[in-house]
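pinging the channel bc i need a second pair of eyes. not urgent but kinda urgent?? the chain im working w is below, pasted from the shared doc
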Amino acid sequence: MKIEYLKEEVKEQCTSLKAARKLFGGNEELVKKLMSRINAFTAADTIKDIIKQKQFRFHKLNNKGDKKLEGYFAVDVKSPKEPWRIILQPLDPDGKPYDPCNIDEIAGMVRIIEITEVSKHYE
């Protein structure tokens, strides 16, 4: 699968050990898990390969206050007990968000994702 990034800073956090260490305050376990997740995204043929893996806990995001999160999803960096999530959006072959984004219908076709952030999304 192809990975695009919303911002250069997000790309740096997901591809540079130094930037990931800074993001996670030096927590090496989280750094390793993030790099492992990014490698799994890259190795996957479609997003369906990620959804099938229970340890990723792929889940839909709901609108939150003024944040419009329709069409966005998250996976755990490490586990549900940790607050860190990778926020992503599936993109069509032209690099545009699916509208509507019915993941059950498109999962086998999605070969591009955009990672918008790595954060403590629920805090």
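so Strands lie at 2-5, 59-60, 73-76, 85-91, 112-119. and The domain at 2-119 is CATH 3.30.2310.20 (YaeB-like fold). — does that match what u expected or am i reading it wrong
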